[in-house]
Structures are given as C-alpha cells and as structure tokens.
C-alpha cells in the first residue's frame, strides 16, 4: 500500500465527513486495508494528523447526524482511530452546554479548577470561542484575577465585545469584579469610554455599584468626562439618582429594620458616591426622570432633606432652584412643602446640629440660594419669609421716606421733626425684623 492511496482516501473521507454523507461508510469499507496499514500506530505522524483533522471537523461542523460519527468511529477498521480519538482534546474543544459554555470557560470561572485550567490551556483550543451571549473565556476568568492573567497571556483578544456591547473592562465594572477591573483599566488597548448596547459606560456601571473610590480614580486617570451624556440622556448623576431612589423606596421609606446592617452599609456607599460626584464637578441640574425633575426636586419629593441640605451646602456644585420640570414646577416651589415632621423623626443630635440640619436651616438654605425663585418669597413660613426679605423691605421703605422728606423740605420745623420721628420708628421696626 502506498501513502498516495492513503492520501486519496483521506481527502475523500474528510470531504464526506464535513457534509455528513452516508456514503462515508462505504468509503471506509472500500479502503479497509489502506486504513489498517497506515493507521495502526497511535504515535505515528499519520495517526496524529488524521486525528487532528478529524477533531477539526467535529468542532467546526454543525453536526446534524451524531449517529453517523459514532458509526464511523466504531467501524472495525477504525479500532486504533477510536482509541486515539478518545485520548485527544476533541471533547474539550467541542463540548458546550445549552448556554454555549465550554469546559475551558467553566474551569476559568471556578477557582477550584485552577489546575484543570492550566491543563486545558495546553490543548490547541480556540481561545476566542464564545458562548451564546458572546462571552469569551476572558469574561469567565474575570471572577478570578489569577485566572484572568493566565488567559490574557495566551494572546486572547482583550478588545472583544459581547452581544450586550460590553468589553471585558465594562463587564467587570458591571459585574462588580473590582480586582479584575483595577488590573484591566491599565490595558491601553481597551477603550475606557466604550458604551454598551444601552449606552452605559464602565464609569456608569461603577456608579450603579457605588464604587466611589474606583470611580474617582478611573475618571481622573483616564480623563473621562464626568458629565458625558449618552443617547438616552443618561449621565453619572441621573444613574446615581435613579439607583438611590430605588434603594430608598425599597429599604428606607417603609421604616423596615430588616437587614438593617446591610441597609446602613449600602446607604453609606451611596453617600460616598454622591460626595465623589460632587468632587468630580458633575452637573446636578440635569433632568433625571420622565417628568424632567432635577436631582434636588427628586430628593424633595422623596423627603430626603439630609441630601438636599448637603447639596445646597456644597460650593463645588451650582444647584438651580428655578429650573422647571416639564410641568412648570421647580425646586423653589417644592421647597414650600418641606415637612417639619420629617426632622422630628430623624435620629441625630438635634441640639448640636440644629443650625445645619433642621427644618429652619433647610428653609433658609433654599431661600438664600441665589437661584431661588423670588416669586415664592411671599408664600410659606412667615418667620423665614420676613428674615429673608427684610433687606428689600428696608430699602423700599427708606426710599419712600427719603422722597417724602424731599417733598416736605418747605414745611415748618414741626413737620420735619415729625418726619424724623417717623423715620426713627421705621428704623426701629426694621431692626426688630433683622
């Protein structure tokens, strides 16, 4: 038997195997002696090449007839071929569950399979193979930093984007894989501003997961625009407010003490993230919902007066209290409905912080803000109102008095004395207001 005969057989065999032709069994029958002569030694180059080509067909072909493959391997002339096939990497290369997850992906995901991962990487597997969601093994390895480093060393495509539009960097931010994110953010080939199918960036995912420290360093190190707005009008601030609102409604508003420690820690993380957004000079006047409410308006509607007080006290942010929502309502108007009862329920040292965190202090903070809508100054709490408008009242009264004095210069001294007495009375009254 010549090698040329074997080569002719191989060409025909693999052509039929790729299309899963039933005639392949007859081809084996007709070349049984050629097969037995050339494919007897499992360590021979001919056998290794034959198995490699066979496995490639199994992996790359959409198999419709597994019975045919089984019948081929169980043919009497393929006894040695079957043994070599079982000892090959084909099961590793071809095996995927209903989600498209391969053995390599499973090994990369689970830390207990680290030794198995190293063995699997020695096979000639397709390192860029994806599951049904377009995730490569790199996405699975992001759960374990050491495995992630091993996978990157294989030369895998780290710029790959899955079906959700996530890069490995934005995926780590989304899944809260902090250690992997910190490692990957230094990869120059990954775009830090990449956005997914719904316009979310890695920075936005960090806000969602209240990763304040990581967010601040990422924004500063990569020169990312903290006020970037996607096609859905979302910014870091709008995402923060929406997430905080859901947390507030679900854990705080009902007064539930279930999971109190978790709620406290989570609320603390929201507070730290808010501070980071302020430090980054984010715009806090952007509409955050379908009604066009700004963040300060949302916090007023939530009766989260602590956050309102904090924002109004920050010099780094400019809060526009006159900006109206889509219904013509602004924060100045909403501030008229601040409830003193909420402060009565707050648990803090009211004597020590009364000048900073109280009903009166918050009302003053709103009215003293330069953007406060002045048409609402004559509405609401009388005590606050008088203290906020007395300067304008004094100016108005003094101007009227001066005009009266000028008009009455020709009057007698008694009238002048009366005017002076009236002016003194007015000044005394004004001082009382102050």
UniProtKB/TrEMBL annotation:
<protein>
    <submittedName>
        <fullName>Ankyrin</fullName>
    </submittedName>
</protein>
<keyword id="KW-0040">ANK repeat</keyword>
<feature type="region of interest" description="Disordered">
    <location>
        <begin position="395"/>
        <end position="434"/>
    </location>
</feature>
<feature type="repeat" description="ANK">
    <location>
        <begin position="99"/>
        <end position="132"/>
    </location>
</feature>
<dbReference type="InterPro" id="IPR002110">
    <property type="entry name" value="Ankyrin_rpt"/>
</dbReference>
<dbReference type="InterPro" id="IPR036770">
    <property type="entry name" value="Ankyrin_rpt-contain_sf"/>
</dbReference>
<keyword id="KW-0677">Repeat</keyword>
<dbReference type="Pfam" id="PF12796">
    <property type="entry name" value="Ank_2"/>
</dbReference>
<feature type="compositionally biased region" description="Low complexity">
    <location>
        <begin position="397"/>
        <end position="434"/>
    </location>
</feature>
């Amino acid at each position: 038997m010549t090698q040329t005969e074997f080569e002719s057989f191989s060409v025909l065999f693999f052509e039929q195997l790729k299309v899963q032709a039933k005639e392949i069994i007859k081809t084996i029958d007709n070349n049984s002696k050629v097969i037995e002569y050339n494919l007897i030694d499992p360590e021979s180059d001919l056998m290794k090449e034959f198995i490699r080509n066979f496995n490639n067909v199994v992996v790359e072909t959409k198999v419709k007839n597994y019975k045919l493959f089984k019948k081929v391997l169980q043919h009497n002339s393929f006894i040695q071929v079957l043994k070599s096939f079982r000892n090959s990497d084909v099961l590793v290369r071809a095996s995927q569950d209903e989600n498209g997850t391969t053995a390599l992906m499973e090994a990369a995901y689970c830390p207990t399979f680290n030794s198995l991962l190293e063995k699997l990487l020695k096979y000639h597997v397709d390192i860029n193979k994806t599951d049904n969601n377009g995730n490569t093994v790199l996405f699975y390895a992001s759960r374990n930093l050491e495995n992630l480093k091993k996978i990157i060393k294989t030369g895998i495509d780290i710029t790959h984007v899955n079906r959700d539009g996530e890069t490995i960097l934005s995926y780590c931010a989304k899944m809260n894989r902090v250690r992997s994110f910190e490692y990957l953010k230094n990869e120059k080939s990954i775009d830090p501003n990449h956005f997914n199918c719904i316009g979310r960036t890695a920075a936005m995912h960090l806000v969602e997961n209240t990763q304040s420290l990581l967010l601040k360093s990422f924004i500063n190190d990569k020169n990312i625009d903290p006020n970037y707005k996607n096609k859905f009008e979302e910014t870091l601030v709008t995402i923060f407010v929406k997430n905080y609102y859901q947390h507030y409604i679900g854990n705080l508003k009902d007064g539930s003490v279930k999971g109190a420690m978790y709620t406290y820690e989570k609320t603390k993380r929201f507070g730290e993230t808010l501070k980071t957004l302020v430090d980054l000079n984010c715009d806090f006047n952007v509409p955050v919902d379908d009604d066009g409410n700004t963040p300060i308006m949302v916090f007023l509607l939530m009766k989260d007066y602590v956050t309102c007080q904090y924002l109004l006290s920050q010099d780094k942010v400019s809060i526009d209290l006159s900006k109206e929502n889509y219904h013509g309502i602004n924060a100045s108007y909403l501030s008229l409905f601040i409830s003193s009862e909420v402060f009565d329920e707050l648990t803090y040292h009211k004597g020590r912080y009364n000048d900073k965190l109280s009903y009166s202090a918050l009302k003053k903070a709103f009215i003293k803000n330069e953007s406060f809508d002045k048409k609402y100054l004559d509405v609401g709490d009388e005590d606050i109102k008088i203290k906020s408008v007395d300067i304008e009242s004094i100016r108005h009264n003094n101007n009227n008095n001066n005009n009266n004095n000028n008009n009455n210069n020709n009057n007698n001294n008694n009238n002048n004395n009366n005017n002076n007495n009236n002016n003194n009375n007015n000044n005394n009254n004004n001082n009382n207001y102050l």
